Amino acid sequence: MTVSTKDITQTADQLPVAAHPARFPRNPGIPLDLDWVSSVQINTSAVERRASSLGARRSVKKEYQAAWLLRAITLMDLTTLNGDDTRGKVRRLCAKAKRPVRRDLIEALGAEDLNITTGAVCVYHEMIGTAVEALEGSGIPVAAVSTGFPDALSPFHLRVQEIEESVKAGASEIDIVISRRHVLTGDWQALYDEMRAYREACGEAHVKAIISTGNLGTLRNVARASHVCMMAGADFIKTSTGKESVNATLPVSLTMVRTTREYEARTGYKIGFKPAGGISKAKDALTYMSLMKEERGNDWLEPDLFRFGASSLLGDIERQLEHFVTGRYSATFRHGIS
Amino acid sequence: MTVSEIFKTMDYGTAPESVSEADAWLDRHDRKFGLFIGGAFTKPGKDRFDSMNPANGEVLASLTEASAKDVDAAVKAASKTQKAWAALGGAGRARHLYALARLIQKHARLFAVLESLDNGKPIRESRDADIPLSARHFYHHAGWAQLMEREMADYEPIGVAGQVIPWNFPFLMLAWKIAPALAMGNTVVLKPAEYTSLTALLFADICIEAGLPEGVVNIITGHGPVGAMIAEHADVSKVAFTGSTRVGRILREQTAGTGKKLTLELGGKSPFIVFDDADIDSAIEGIVDAIWFNQGQVCCAGSRLLVQESIAETFHERLRQRMQTLRVGDPLDKSIDLGCIVDPVQHQRITQLVEQGVDEGATAFRGETSLPENGCYYPPTLLTGVEAGDTLAQEEIFGPVLVSMSFRTPAEAVQLANNSRYGLAASVWTENINLALGIAPQIKAGVIWINCTNQFDAAAGFGGYRESGFGREGGREGLFEYVKPSYLKALKDIAPVKVHALTEGGGEGIDRTAKMYIGGKQARPDSGYSQPIATPKGKLISHVGSGNRKDIRNAVEAATAASGSWAKASGHNKAQILYYIGENLAARAGEFENRVREMTGASSKAAASEVEAAINRFFTYAAWADKYDGQVHSVPLRGVTVAMKEPVGVMGIACPEEAPLLGFVSLVAPTIAMGNAVVAVPSEAHPLSATDLYQVFDTSDLPGGVVNIVTGPKDDLAKTLADHYGVDGVWYHGTQDGSAMVERAAAANLKRTWVNYGKAIDWTDPAQSEGEEYLRHATEVKNVWIPYGE
């Protein structure tokens, strides 16, 4: 199965951008460039050194920290991806997405006008309808994980169909999962074709490609897979499903973010980045944000180019904000759960 | 700024580190300091100078300019306690060093803040690098103290060490100097740089707190002349200096002939080499760590970027992009990358050099980085369009200024890397392990970082080749700078050896003239003159050529030509040749025995035993040739740090007058076993045993040029060798005056020297005339850092 670049490009041109007003043209993809893929060089030790120094090189304090944490909330895909999700659970999640921080804290921060909500809500296909309904009028997009998430081993036509169904159900962002075996066997053409098909099935919905870094073995594979997904038209590249034993890490993120810089340098298209899994502390969120700011600039501190996939991060941010406002350390039970 | 406004701009704001504890410490000392002598602070002196905060020009404290009397008092205090400190034993000293390490850790933040205040370096660096590395140095050397009796069995402390350190890493350099000195049983008088004395004075407080015996550590403050007074003091037996090559040269001259042991860690212009298959983003981040660490005020800063031509344009573009996000600001702000230049004087020097470079045709690039309005700041700068011979490519700038050049092939990268009078460090970036490990041995530098840069640890030696100085700090190799062989103290002055006057006419038989031996060929002297060599009774044995400076020039050229391939020959191969020399010498033992007897009048038994010892010595160094291994150091790195032993290069050897055969062999055999090419000047009075050897060399497959022999006036020839810019090391055995002359002349290119100060080695005693000490002087230690992991 192959999809020509031309088809996709045409589709893309006709499409308005779904969730957020478009600041930049959408990535239409480019033909698979195997020379580029094979020229990828990643020095793991050096990447780790840079990653470990990021947290020490930048520090935001006091009102700056509060502002950055509010920004972090707007970059969050508030997520529930569990077998026991119900309509009630998803409604509670959506309510939290709409009002992520206690009103008195928002007022104390003087942030009423910022209309802080999370960047999106992220659910399984079955919960899209509930979420769309619960979020109506809020402007918060619904993202759905798809393509046989998390392992992506269901029949290919069903994976494509799943995307189509989810888009039909109202998801404006689709988080697809690549077939890791294509990366592990170096079958870049197969990975490219698969990603192209997913992109096409998404139509106007934006597609985030989960490359599942914890399964790929090396940072070099992470970078190669990222490049192929971008060439095939991914809007975002995303680290993990949250279900692997190792999820988002700073070295993996740094590697992926650098691939977006190279992709932009070569094609002119800006690609978003979403680390997911394991980011549960406000401090970690700040480190990721300074990574984005340092490596890509302020454009990547906007929800159309950067998202956190997170379920428990919001709670810690709320506690830090309360501490900033009151000077007292907070407690979990003082904030509404999602 | 309100939260709402910041939400829109997403700026970092400032994250200042508190200075209250540092202020409180300064206030406790009334912001006036005396000198730390004999375990207590003296009253602040009349002659004082200010220590400034370069970030705002404010005076932090008033310090005492030490007088000659103060220096004398400090050296006396150190001297008085040294024997007791040594007698405390390794285990006893280990406990003190351990206590110092612990206290540095306990006061880590105070040290870090004070360092950044005084020096202007970012608090992130003083907190995460300078201070932890310093504590680690004391821990590591507490360990060496514990192990000294066993691991350094044939060595003893030197005595009082005079140490003069620079302003770029004030406390770390103190640790590098004091920890090994104390561990090996020495006591110290240390002078911090006049710009940055405060952490050294805080350390003095720590010494009191730790209960260190009085006088073991003495800290005296002041300007350059105070350093000179320390180095000159008669009771200082070891001088360790880190700083400029200019001052290093002066110290070399000043201490020449005094017998003071000298370590010099000097300047650098270290290459940062990027091949086309490097991880470019990581290499660029490496540059940030190489040249914008400590504002580029780092002796081993990667200040010469060498990038493969095929990627140069892209690389520069990406580097410029990276430079846009560097933040320069208040050193105590936790969100900055670069702080201040230490002093306006340095700022001016950087400015002038860069202006000169731009005049010479370089293009300067600076990012949008904004600088604070006040304070001593210089922006990160990239200079392109610089060629190898330009001032900026050769001179150490010692600031945040990177110059870039391109190369075509690995061989050209090496050529450019080595196109420098310095040889401190190099950083090599490629994902090809064959290329990386192939380049590392070819670069003349004491430290090579593969795909990393500016890595330091107490367990790995640090130090330079060429005019970057000599000696190592850290690792086992660094310990030898603070000990001396135990046999030294028993050595007697050499007895003068007379050149026998010719009193009889020509002998019977065919006339024989010993030639010189250059490039594997017999050579007539350039002068056209010859000297008669006679028996003690005045009977002519043979003539030898009277060598002059041109013969030395020719010999050095031959040695240089031979040194490359000889250095690369395998240890096994060198061993085979040395065994073969021994074998061929044995075959002609009788002849050599006669020759020794004839020249010196030695008994036939003594002469036979000298020849036998010489044969044995060749066998000893044949044995060593493939066994004097390097080490893998245990540093905190996922990877290996390999301490490789490399030949010094081209070496000049002035042989002793006594033991004409054995003395020559004892010095030449270890140097060639380690891969050096040698220009040897044999005993002036008795040169014929050496010249006879060239026939042995010729029949033993020794490649031409590895050993060159120039006969003639020894001290004149030694002077030419010591003066020669192309000679990397000189050994001298002769008079005290000759020793002083060699050390003084060596200052020109800071070549390594090893001289006897007019003392007589017993060449028949292997404990003092052969072994690892000789091999150590014939080698450089190069530490190659190789992080690994995919």
Name of the CATH homologous superfamily of chain A = Aldolase class I
- Strand percentage of chain B: 15-25%
Order of helices and strands of chain A: HHHHEHHEHEHEHHEHEHEHEH
State the end-to-end distance of chain B. 44 Å
As a whole number of angstroms, the C-alpha radius of gyration of chain A is 19 Å
Overall structural class of chain A, as computed from helix and strand content, comes to: alpha/beta
Low-confidence stretches of chain B: none
> Order of strands side by side in the largest beta sheet of chain A?
7-6-5-4-3-2-1-8
Broad shape of chain B: globular
- How many domains comprise the coordinates of chain A? 1
Provide structural commentary:
Chain A has 338 residues and is an alpha/beta fold. Chain A has 14 helices and 8 strands. Chain A has one domain (27-327): Aldolase class I (TIM Barrel). In chain A, helix 4 (62-74) packs across helix 13 (282-296). Chain A is globular and about 55 Å long. With 790 residues, chain B is an alpha/beta fold. Chain B has 3 domains: 26-266 and 478-485, Aldehyde Dehydrogenase, Chain A, domain 1; 270-463, Aldehyde Dehydrogenase, Chain A, domain 2, CATH 3.40.309; 517-524 and 545-778, Aldehyde Dehydrogenase, Chain A, domain 1, CATH 3.40.605. In chain B, 42% of the residues lie in helices and 19% in strands. Chain B has 27 helices and 35 strands. Chain B is globular, with a radius of gyration of 28 Å. The two termini of chain B are 44 Å apart. Chains A and B meet through helix 3, helix 4 and helix 13 of A and helix 1 and helix 11 of B.
